[in-house]
Amino acid sequence: MTTEELIAQILKKKSFLCVGLDTDIDKIPPHLLNEEDPIFSFNKAIIDATQHLCVGYKPNIAFYEAYGLKGWRALERTIRYLNDNYPEQFTIADAKRGDIGNTSTRYAKAFFENLAFDSVTIAPYMGRDSVEPFLAFKNKHTILLALTSNTGAFDFQTKMMDGREFYKEVLEVSKTYENAENLMYVVGATKAEYLAEIRQIVPDHFLLVPGVGAQGGDLHEVCKYGMNKNIGLLVNSSRGIIYASTGRDFAEKAAEKAAEIQVKMREELGKL
Amino acid sequence: MTTEELIAQILKKKSFLCVGLDTDIDKIPPHLLNEEDPIFSFNKAIIDATQHLCVGYKPNIAFYEAYGLKGWRALERTIRYLNDNYPEQFTIADAKRGDIGNTSTRYAKAFFENLAFDSVTIAPYMGRDSVEPFLAFKNKHTILLALTSNTGAFDFQTKMMDGREFYKEVLEVSKTYENAENLMYVVGATKAEYLAEIRQIVPDHFLLVPGVGAQGGDLHEVCKYGMNKNIGLLVNSSRGIIYASTGRDFAEKAAEKAAEIQVKMREELGKL
Description:
EC 4.1.1.23 (chains A, B); RibuloseP-bd_barrel (chains A, B); OMPdecase_type-2 (chains A, B); homodimer
């Protein structure tokens, strides 16, 4: 998917919501456990109920790897279901991968070709040759971790490197990578006050913002400091939406929670 | 496996070699492609031929993920084969994972419980709460990326943070993590001259050293600067061993290459 297509979807749906499919078999409604593939059944129901309210879905790969073959099969079925039925959705493999060049190429093929995700999240620690193999894929997007939503972010990301905070160094250096126009960045909603300075470094790139909802981030603050003329934001919510109910009404309740966020997003988009 | 058991294996075999199972279906001997599971067949033959010369095996997970379900199945069969037949081998899931706390717990369960690896490689970018969920597993080892073997390492790892190189900051900060005694560190053999300073910060921890062989690192230099009184080194070689031949003699040739390294290691251990 091109960035222009993503922007068109946001304007059409008046939403820049991404739904995180962090599907945990211990938290899904018990009646689904009798299904042949409970994880996929849950995801399918959530997707069907929320797809008109959001522009993207983000499975966190850890939740699938944790179940081995069974989990990997559910992930494959989920991304295939999305691509077959809702190709207008922007899909994110939240994998936080990164390795030496020839190995990163393997991960890129896994997520961009085999699974056919639109994007993948990448950790920047290993530098240029760990990121560029992902950037080489046309119309695919590499979402680099910049400032994450967790408390551990303060261990290194906000410390000074070369006269500026490390996450800013990551932003600056990554702009010099080949095909840097295919970059997006992860910035946690729990650190919304940082967004103004981040926008000075990367005014045009999309930001993927997790942490609204269960982790405590505030949507209005995120928009105030992070939105650009092309919106430039994908705001993710996982637990707050997908676990709104553990009853038979779980998909309906998830849609209600997604709709609550979408209404606020419509308001924010109206200010543009 | 405990660290003491690993040291005992090294002393018994006079080897601290780890064989990297970066199995690429385009590089394995063509006659294996008729097998039901060529990746596993290749791994099994390599393991059987080299196990007396090495103390560990390190599948890089990217090579398995690249083949989707088929790859994941081959990975499961490989680690099960190792644990069933050679439980004395130290197994490393080279995954370079790392995510917020509750998600890292998922990855830890995937690799330590479901797949039953002895250790997993982790990227430090997200800090304490992304690493400690791995450290919480008793007799399992968390191998943190410190100074990697690729050129991209110079993008960030060697830049100054808080008055010292970033990779040193990673070493220092990680020593304060809960259960830090379960840490090991990745230090590329291509940067052997850094090992002396690294040993000043982490004198006792094991170092996993990739980059000997195909990537150009020198074993003697690595030992000179990196060895401690308990050896403290696991040196990995992947391509140089497993792709020594593409003929029907591939396993035999792999064993020859492994033996060449083991002879040098025996010499180095003799100097202790």
